[in-house]
Write a structure and sequence with these properties.
Blueprint lengths: L1 H14 L14 E12 L14 E11 L5 H5 L4 E10 L7 E15 L3 E14 L18 E14 L4 E13 L10 E13 L5 H12 L9 E12 L7 E16 L2 E12 H10 L4 H7 L1 E13 L2 E10 L10 E10 L10 E11 L2 E12 L1
Antiparallel strand pairs: 1-2, 1-8, 2-3, 3-4, 4-5, 5-6, 6-7, 7-8, 9-10, 9-16, 10-11, 11-12, 12-13, 13-14, 14-15, 15-16
Length: 379
């Protein structure tokens, strides 16, 4: 608890500048939030053997910028907030230690009034965990095997206006730490937390200003009704056969077609092919299939439905896939894939080719299978 408080005080001291900066024309729409949170583990598999010792405690400092004015996509996306968060988490378990994370975030309002608002936030980045598994130094930790891990969180919260420049922000969040099976073990840490945050808005954007901008932008908007296509290639890898074991590549290709269903939201249908070299190696060692059938048995084909939310040049893609093939190593009949994309050209332009690159995570329920680097093109 003491470390959490020290982290929060340091963040506040580093971020508090002249609170009269708004009188000096501080850039519009920049907010700073400090929060403390307490939560508990979500034990998603009986394989986790670490006993729960105490509540997980953490703190966070975040900078947010409200898209507004010059960005044509600000109105299309509902004036989201973009930013960066620095977080600290004491996992409440001595063998796991603590995690320090740095995340990029996007926050969007579901309901907004003059006195309060309801919002959702997605943040993803990396976290360093100081006590990963080691066969000699830390053999009890069978949850995380690497120092560097992905750190993703989903938050649902409320902002209560305490004045023109201040907000009180109670919220709940789900936070995930995982290395995507890139290093054994990788059962993952899932924490449900309850936050209490305080936000200072140096030069806030008023509801009246947003309404005026919305009226001006509406005249510029032209709905893109045509079907759009996307081709994707990706490569990932996963560790097999225990700690510091061999790492095998995974190659994925997919093709989809979709349409806008909202100003910044596309719905897509597609098909995906995946080749997993670790499955190939496993079946060969097992000796149950002829060499000619190994590649086929190590391949999976799936149909999927995907939703893409655009925030400027960033795309947040959630894919729900259903396997059309079946093999002995396939954990279940369906999977999810979350991809964060960055478009090199304006993705809202009609009739334009839009190449992009990103990173994806594939999982079966709460069990991550692998991370992959992804490239693609929309046309």
């Amino acid at each position: 608890m003491l470390r959490v408080l020290i982290f929060s005080v340091l963040c506040m001291n580093l971020s508090i500048v002249n609170l009269n900066a708004q009188e000096k024309k501080f850039p519009k729409g920049h907010d700073f939030e400090w929060s403390l949170h307490s939560g508990f583990w979500l034990i998603h598999t009986p394989t986790i053997v670490l006993p729960l010792q105490r509540a997980a405690l953490g703190g966070e400092f975040a900078w947010e910028w409200n898209a507004y004015g010059k960005q044509h996509w600000g109105w299309r996306c509902g004036y989201p907030k973009l930013g960066v968060a620095l977080s600290y988490m004491d996992f409440g378990q001595d063998q796991l230690g603590m995690g320090i994370g740095l995340q990029a975030l996007v926050s969007a309002d579901f309901i907004k009034t003059k006195n309060w608002r309801i919002y959702g936030r997605l943040a993803t980045g990396f976290a360093v965990i100081n006590k990963p598994y080691h066969p000699n130094k830390n053999p009890v930790n069978n949850v995380i095997g690497s120092y560097l891990n992905n750190n993703t969180s989903f938050r649902l919260g409320a902002s209560i206006y305490l004045g023109k420049h201040m907000e009180l922000r109670p919220s709940a969040s789900f936070t995930h730490y995982s290395n995507g099976a890139s290093q054994f073990p990788n059962l993952g840490i899932n924490i449900l937390s309850f936050h209490m945050g305080f936000c200072y808005k140096f030069n806030p954007i008023t509801l009246e200003e947003l309404r005026l901008d919305r009226q001006l932008r509406k005249a510029e908007f032209e709905w893109n009704k045509r079907v759009q296509f996307c081709g994707i290639l990706s490569v990932g890898y996963r560790e097999s056969e225990g700690w510091k074991g061999p790492k095998y590549p995974i190659f994925v290709g997919s093709f989809d077609a979709g349409m806008y269903v909202a100003r910044n939201n596309r719905l897509k249908l597609g098909i995906e092919y995946e080749y997993n070299a670790s499955s190939h190696h496993f079946f060969r060692q097992l000796g149950v299939y002829d060499e000619s059938k190994l590649k086929l048995k190590s391949s999976r084909v799936a149909a999927f439905i995907e939703d893409e939310i655009l925030v400027g040049r960033f795309g947040i893609n959630s894919r729900l896939g259903f396997y059309l093939t079946r093999d002995e190593l396939q954990p279940m009949f369906m999977f999810v894939r979350l991809t964060i994309r960055y478009y090199f050209t304006d993705p809202y332009q009609k009739g334009k080719v839009a190449p992009w690159a990103g990173i994806s995570l594939k999982a079966h329920m709460l069990d991550a299978e692998y991370y992959a680097w992804v490239i693609g093109v929309n046309f």
